[in-house]
Amino acid sequence: MNDPKPNLVGGVWLTGEAVANRNPSDLSQVVGHYARATRADAEAAIAAAKAAFPAWSRSAPLTRHAILRKASDEILARRDQLGRLLSMEEGKTLPEAIAEVTRAAQIFDFFAGECLRSGGELLPSVRPGVGVEITREAVGVVGIITPWNFPIAIPAWKIAPALCYGNTVVFKPADLVPGSAWALVDILHRAGVPDGVLNLVMGRGSVVGQAIVESTDVSALTFTGSRGTGEALAMASARLMRKVQFEMGGKNPFVVLDDADFEVAVDCVVNGSFFSTGQRCTASSRIIVTEGVHDAFVAAVKARMQALTTGPALDPGTDIGPVVDESQLVQDLDYIARGKGEGARLVTGGDRVARATEGLFLTPALFTECTNAMTIARAEIFGPVAAVIRVRDYDEALAVANDTPFGLSAGIATTSLKHASDFKRNAQAGMVMVNLPTAGVDFHVPFGGTKGSSHGSREQGRYAVEFFTTVKTAYQKP
Ligand code: ADP
User: Fold this and answer.
1) Is residue 268 flagged as an active site residue?
2) Which of 175, 360, 468, 476 is deepest in the core (most CB within 10 A)?
């Protein structure tokens, strides 16, 4: 299809004002043009989804299974091409992008299976002769609003269960990454999703997103993005008594104890903090290290970081791709300046660097001599920046790890069964990693956090059924 790539509303491809999608590895390169949806387009998409709901929610499970399977097959078959597109628009390295595309295919495959596994319960009533049937039903029109950092995996893990359980969808991807979203919707459309069941409205949060959030016809809203936007969406949704599911980031701790396997700990921190340019809500940004190993550990991480190559995402030698856009880069540099200003010591990185192409390259930054009260230890930076906090022992490490308004992921490197077990139980986070990076999670198990990170029921795996269905209890007397 020619540029600008159009929106999909009620099964019709709708064109609109063309917006350039730029490559953060080379700002002179336009990845493609995409049509910007208007408020009226979003309202038409919601109406189309509402009209399509009765038939789709009653469609045969095998129909839904076949469509999701077909989509999965195409995504997998085209993973190199889709990975390249993702890498060009978002800036993660090609291997990271191909892995993300593969994950999207696996998610569609998983939920294709779930279409055939939905069941209910049959219980005897307390009244003789009466039966009680407990079943799950689709919720209705689901609004899906996604961020830029996982342009295909996050849409996949929201769209696949929404369609699997019989909901219809209005999907608004992040403005920065329409390419992967468009490709995914095109694949699903050609795989046979009926008209109106899946609608794509690319555009501004304040226009298109707002129209979705304000609509009384949107029965459920699933959002991944920043805490501030999440709060505004939660308030608007509360007035409508709508079902919501929000993922809003983290300030994830990674604890390194004196008894850790040193190489495992270094790997976990370098990967968890800096891969994908630190632009993961599960990235480790507070590295909490006990004093016996602190200095040697910092030296080893620093050496490993200095061996990383920051550069264009598609270059085979690149380890760390660019920052996604200018405003995120300004924000990262501002936090780095604040870290220095508050007395932390920058031991390596944190420099904007020039490469052959005009890209947004920032070398990964490591701070030491940090306290957990500093801005760089409290705010979610969403860049390749980590703060090392020195502690006496495990008890202090756990207290510091939990002293944050967020609670998405928490990791520890230790060879002590006692400390690993205690950490799994007492870390205040939805996901806990022992001797593994805080980022990098499986597609078939629940994803989500506690405290300020998440609101509503879990995403992914079989737990997704909680959000995308409502329970019906039917009593029957013969
Ligand atoms: P990020 O830092 O990931 O861009 P945001 O919360 O700003 O986090 O954006 C996440 C998603 O929410 C994007 O798709 C964005 O367009 C959308 N969004 C932003 N503001 C609003 C809003 N007021 N109403 C609905 N959606 C919004």
Assistant:
1) no
2) 468
Q: Is the CB of 31 under 6 A from ligand 1?
A: no
Instruction: Please tell me whether residues 211 and 356 are part of one structural domain.
Output: no
* pLDDT tens profile 8-65: 999 999 999 999 999 999 999 999 999 999 999 999 999 999 999 999 999 999 999 9
User: Which pLDDT belongs to residue 1?
Assistant: 77
- Specify the length of the chain in residues: 478
Among 335, 361, 256, residue whose Cα is nearest residue 300: 256
Residue 199 forms part of a structural domain: yes
Ligand 1, atom 4, residue with closest C-alpha: 147
Q: How far is the CA of 328 from the centre of ligand 1 (A)?
A: 14
Q: What is the pLDDT of residues 402-411, one digit of tens each?
A: 999 999 999 9
Rounded to the nearest angstrom, the distance between the alpha carbon of 146 and the centre of ligand 1 is 7
* 281 in active site: yes
Number of domains in the chain: 2
Same domain, residue pair 464 and 381: no
Q: What is the pLDDT of residue 118?
A: 86
Q: Which of 154, 229, 240, 276 to mutate to test the pocket of ligand 1 (most atoms within 8 A of CB)?
A: 229
User: For residue 400, how far is its CA from the centre of ligand 1 (angstroms)?
Assistant: 30
**CB neighbours of 294 closer than 8 A, spacing ≥ 6?**
388, 390
Report the alpha-carbon distance of residue 20 to residue 53 in Å, rounded.
33
Q: Are residues 382 and 450 in the same domain?
A: no
Ligand 1 center to 120 CA (angstroms): 36
Token pair recorded at residue 360: 């947004």
On whether both 100 and 134 belong to a single domain, the answer is yes
Range of the domain at 259: 252-434
Using one digit for the tens of pLDDT, what is the confidence trace for 104-135? Answer: 999 999 999 999 998 899 999 999 999 999 99
Residue range 427-446: mean pLDDT, rounded: 98
116 located within any domain:
yes
Q: Is the pTM for the entire model greater than 0.70? A: yes
- Helix residue spans in 141-261 (DSSP H): 153-164, 178-190, 210-214, 227-240
Please name the residue whose Cα sits nearest to atom 1 of ligand 1: 225
Catalytic residue among 115, 164, 281, 370: 281
User: Rounded to whole angstroms, what are the CA distances from 245 to 50, 160, 212, 445?
Assistant: 20, 15, 14, 16
Q: Which residue's CA is the nearest one to ligand 1's atom 2?
A: 226
Q: What is the CATH number of the domain that holds 309?
A: 3.40.309.10
